[in-house]
Amino acid sequence: MEFFAIAQAGLNEQAIQEQVTVARMGAYCDTIVVLDGDDEAGHIGTVWGEFPVQRQIIRGGVRFALTTCPNALAWTITNGFPPAPDDVVIHGTINRTEHDEDFIESIVEFLETWRLGLETVRG
To answer: pTM higher than 0.90 for the full model?
Structure first.
C-alpha cells in the first residue's frame, strides 16, 4: 500500500539529504523517539514499537526503512518530483495490499506528523 503527504517546507534535495538524518528524526516527527543513531542508522521508538532504522540517500532526498518491521514500512522524503515537484513529498509504503483500519490510520497520521514537522523545522 502507498501513502502520501505533501509538505510546503522549502527544502530542496541537498537540504533534505544534509538535514533529515536518523539522529534528527525526532525534530521532524514528534511520534519518533531516537533511542540511538547517527546520520545513516539507529534504533527508534514508534507508535508501533521499537525498530532498527536505516537511511539511504536517494535521488531527490532520502529513504528510511524499519528493517525488522513485519509490514516492511519504508518512507521517502523527496523534492523535485511529482506529484508536487515544488514541495516536499513524503511517500510511505508497506508490503501489504490490505490491512486493518487502525493500522492504516496510524500510517496516515505518521506521514502527517512528518509533514507538519518538515514545515515547522525547515532545517
So the answer is: yes
Query: For residues 38 and 21, is the Cβ–Cβ distance under 8 A?
Result: yes
Q: What does the block give as the cell for 35?
A: 533511542
> Helix or strand or coil: residue 20?
coil
- How far from 8 is each of 82, 85, 103, 119, CA to CA, in Å? 14, 11, 26, 6
Domain boundaries, the chain: 2-121
pLDDT by residue (tens digit) across 16-64?
999 999 999 999 999 999 999 999 999 999 999 999 999 999 999 999 9
Instruction: Find all residues with CB under 8 Å of 31, minimum gap 6, and list them.
Output: 46, 47, 109, 110, 113
CATH of domain 2-121: 3.30.530
